[in-house]
């Protein structure tokens, strides 16, 4: 197995501490299930160093449970979901072209798909005898700290009880890597990555969302006229479900190509809806052709891979992609249409300029 520093060397690193990195897009597009060492890493603090033997998960419901990794593996039926995880800041770099935004300048690689194995969060909550209710929230606390406080988020009770929501101890059939949440993380398919806490420590069920700053203050979507100075987190929209998005992975931006047939490949993702169509343009969106779609059966929360062939004459060309979802919705054309000062949910057409000789 590669060491952490060898894994870092394979990625585009935005920062070493906290560790944030994404794979080059060509490598991301190489396999439907992203190898763990190629999977983007988003962390807010230092990576905690946890030992299986001493690690325990505390669950506070009608009864309080304290469970070891062995308990979790043996007491609950094993469950698996192939799901895409995506950072709310994926593609933020495209928004910086409009006006400054806060946060790391992610290209389109803050996304990945894995087969996650663990057990259903709902099974655990039932064992802890939690009180159900529409206004309830399942809150998580992790072992890493952000500004002196443990990382903490929450999800609505109904999503926590959904059959797709897991606590996972394996990714693509192997134990989680330290940077992806070893020994146990949540996987909340269709939701922004921020709601899938890594390095779990404690779970509570409560009648209000987590008051942790990550939940209460961060990861909010604001209108374009709101600034860092005027933002009121109470009025911002909490980013849970992820919107429709698509990206061109090949060719790369700035590539120099030979005239003629040009194979364009990428991904599209529709949260908890499905991608029904992907349009690809070789002329900045004046004309479009249809891509061929490739989707794993029985993986409703996983991305769609797509391929299209454009015929490109010599010159500069703006390639563009836009997807359509099962509700017949598509993506806005311009980054200006979706700009917000935090740089979240960049869903405009992904454009790649190439030179053909
Ligand atoms: N404990 C903890 N969980 C976390 C985070 C974190 O910093 N600490 N980052 C979140 C964010 S914003 C994302 S996008 C995903 C990234 O998961 P990955 O690093 O395994 O790709 O983890 C989420 N879970
Ligand atoms: Mo994220």
From TrEMBL:
<dbReference type="InterPro" id="IPR014756">
    <property type="entry name" value="Ig_E-set"/>
</dbReference>
<dbReference type="Pfam" id="PF03404">
    <property type="entry name" value="Mo-co_dimer"/>
</dbReference>
<feature type="domain" description="Oxidoreductase molybdopterin-binding">
    <location>
        <begin position="44"/>
        <end position="212"/>
    </location>
</feature>
<dbReference type="InterPro" id="IPR036374">
    <property type="entry name" value="OxRdtase_Mopterin-bd_sf"/>
</dbReference>
<dbReference type="GO" id="GO:0008482">
    <property type="term" value="F:sulfite oxidase activity"/>
</dbReference>
<dbReference type="GO" id="GO:0030151">
    <property type="term" value="F:molybdenum ion binding"/>
</dbReference>
<dbReference type="Pfam" id="PF00174">
    <property type="entry name" value="Oxidored_molyb"/>
</dbReference>
<keyword id="KW-0560">Oxidoreductase</keyword>
<dbReference type="GO" id="GO:0006790">
    <property type="term" value="P:sulfur compound metabolic process"/>
</dbReference>
<keyword id="KW-0500">Molybdenum</keyword>
<dbReference type="InterPro" id="IPR005066">
    <property type="entry name" value="MoCF_OxRdtse_dimer"/>
</dbReference>
<dbReference type="InterPro" id="IPR008335">
    <property type="entry name" value="Mopterin_OxRdtase_euk"/>
</dbReference>
<feature type="domain" description="Moybdenum cofactor oxidoreductase dimerisation">
    <location>
        <begin position="238"/>
        <end position="356"/>
    </location>
</feature>
<dbReference type="InterPro" id="IPR000572">
    <property type="entry name" value="OxRdtase_Mopterin-bd_dom"/>
</dbReference>
<dbReference type="GO" id="GO:0043546">
    <property type="term" value="F:molybdopterin cofactor binding"/>
</dbReference>
<keyword id="KW-0479">Metal-binding</keyword>
<dbReference type="GO" id="GO:0020037">
    <property type="term" value="F:heme binding"/>
</dbReference>
<protein>
    <submittedName>
        <fullName>Sulfite oxidase</fullName>
    </submittedName>
</protein>
């Amino acid at each position: 197995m590669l060491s952490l520093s060898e894994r870092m060397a394979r990625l585009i690193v935005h920062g070493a501490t906290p560790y944030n990195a994404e794979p080059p897009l060509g490598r991301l597009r190489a396999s439907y299930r992203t190898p763990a060492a190629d999977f983007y890493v988003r962390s807010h603090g230092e990576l905690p160093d946890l030992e299986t033997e001493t690690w325990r998960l505390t669950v506070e419901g009608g009864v309080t449970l304290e469970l070891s990794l062995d308990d979790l593996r043996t007491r609950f039926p094993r469950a698996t979901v192939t799901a895409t995880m995506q950072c709310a800041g994926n593609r933020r770099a495209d928004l910086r072209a409009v006006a400054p935004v806060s946060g790391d300048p992610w290209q389109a690689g803050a996304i990945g798909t894995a087969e996650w194995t663990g057990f259903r969060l709902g099974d655990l909550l039932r064992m802890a005898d939690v009180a159900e209710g529409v206004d309830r929230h399942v809150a998580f606390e992790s072992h890493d700290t952000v500004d002196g406080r443990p990382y903490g988020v929450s999800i609505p009770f109904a999503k926590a009880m959904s059959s797709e929501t897991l606590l996972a101890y394996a990714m693509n059939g192997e134990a989680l890597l330290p940077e992806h949440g070893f020994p146990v993380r949540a996987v909340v398919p269709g939701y922004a990555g921020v709601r899938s806490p890594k390095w779990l420590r404690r779970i509570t069920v409560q009648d209000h969302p987590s008051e942790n700053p990550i939940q209460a203050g961060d990861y909010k979507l604001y209108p374009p006229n709101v600034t860092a100075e005027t933002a009121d987190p109470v009025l911002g929209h909490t980013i849970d479900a992820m919107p429709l998005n698509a990206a061109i992975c090949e060719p790369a931006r700035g590539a120099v190509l030979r005239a003629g047939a040009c194979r364009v490949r990428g991904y599209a993702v529709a949260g908890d809806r499905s991608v029904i169509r992907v349009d690809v343009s070789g002329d900045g969106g004046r004309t479009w052709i249809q891509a061929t779609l490739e989707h794993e059966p029985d993986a409703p929360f996983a991305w769609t891979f797509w391929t299209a062939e454009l015929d490109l004459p010599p010159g500069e060309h703006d390639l563009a992609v836009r997807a359509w979802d099962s509700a017949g919705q598509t993506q806005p054309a311009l980054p200006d249409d979706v700009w917000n000062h935090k740089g979240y949910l960049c869903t405009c057409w992904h454009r790649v300029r190439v030179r053909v000789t």
